[in-house]
Amino acid sequence: MNLTEQILTLAENYSEFTANNLSKLIKHKSLSCHEKETAEELKQMMLDAGFDEVFIDGLGNVIGRIGSGKKIIAIDGHIDTVDAGNEKNWNFDPFGGAIKNGYVHGRGSADQTGGPASFVTAGKILKEIGIQNDVTIYFVGSVMEEDCDGLPWKYIIEEDKIKPDCVIITEPTNLNIYRGHRGRMEIEVSFQGLSAHGSAPERGKNAIYAASKAALEIEKLNDRLADDSFLGKGTVTISEIVSSSPSLCAVADYCKIHLDRRLTNGENKESAIKQIEEIVQGMNAEVKLLNYKAKAYTGLEYGMEKYFPTWQIEENNPVIKTGVETFSKIFGEKPVIDKWTFSSNGVVINGIYGIPIIGFGPGNEVFAHAPNEKVPIEHLVKASAFYAYYCSIF
Q: Which residues are catalytic?
């Protein structure tokens, strides 16, 4: 039996193992900063699969290692999820982890504990067949990604001192190969006004009016932002507006808007901030790039600015070419090569640190953050095989 046949056979033989592991992970509600139970569960899965080393770092990331070669590969999947939202919109228990009709059901099944469940099986396969090349493989169950994408990898690179030669991101790709996505940033614009009695508004200066005028111009800005043939168009939208005044019978002397800014190729934080500053010029307003700081479940406080750079890997990059070769060998056909609509840990891994990335994961991203989330068991099996083979030939 050749390597391809070995890996495919084992991935199929372990399909129940993979599905059951995913079901166990789903049963732990795992919101950002509250991933402890899921992390401990994943750690035990790696140990049971025979990994050479497993540890939980200071931020709470679960990191398993197989091999000790010169080339370093990491396989990343975040283990935090968003909440279920209105459970009346679900046809099943979002945290039940039900396995039926060829799917594993529940919050996080696609976004994205399906990836970690699959890479645990890939590790089990590699331990069984033996590593074919001179590599070290890190299997990372990252935390706090939903709250601040890229933050766990900032910690891994800067504090754990792990800097791989390439990273496989296991966010859902519907078994396609992804090689980039738009960046994003969070901007706050604060407007200062002058309060006056509501019976005589002409005596004051209403901050809400200034914010409203700016909002209309920001809407127009969205229509003229840069476009890119691969990543798509840059966008901006107002996601929150907050105001205050001395009373409800007074002119508002303060208003704040929150912007969700998506960045395509050629855009960066400086250019995006400048566009907003030009709109609010003369409005007594301050434009600010926000920062994130939170306490991990380990008790550690950690953060970064909320600028998440655009990233894109060229198709001729060795990490993508190896992925195409892996896909063709394992599945006997050419892959679809595309991009994510949403953001991922790639904003730090490649966007800041320049580490090459390939995206390949089980599940469809349309289920991300949506009710009735589920992932096909067939996807879990194929992802397990893909990760094992990729690591064997990289």
A: 80, 145
Report residue 243: phi and psi, to 5°.
-140, 165
Domain architecture of the chain: domains with CATH = 3-181+310-393 (3.40.630.10), 183-292 (3.30.70.360)
Paired strand residues for 72: 136
Longest dimension (CA), the chain: 86
Q: Say if residues 245 and 251 touch (Cβ distance below 8 Å).
A: yes
Per-residue pLDDT of the chain (394 residues; tens, 9 = 90+): 899 999 999 999 999 999 999 999 999 999 999 999 999 999 999 999 999 999 999 999 999 999 999 999 999 999 999 999 999 999 999 999 999 999 999 999 999 999 999 999 999 999 999 997 999 999 999 999 999 999 999 999 999 999 999 999 999 999 999 999 999 999 999 999 999 999 999 999 999 999 999 999 999 999 999 999 999 999 999 999 999 999 999 999 999 999 999 999 999 999 999 999 999 999 999 999 999 999 999 999 999 999 999 999 999 999 999 999 999 999 999 999 999 999 999 999 999 999 999 999 999 999 999 999 999 999 999 999 999 999 999 9
How far is residue 381's CA from residue 368's CA, in Å, rounded to a whole number? 20
| Residue-wise DSSP of 274-328 | HHHHHHHTTSSEEEEE-EEEEE-TTS-EEEEESEE--EE--TTSHHHHHHHHHHH
Asked if 326 contacts 390 with a C-beta cutoff of 8 angstroms, the reply is yes
pTM reported for the whole predicted model: 0.95
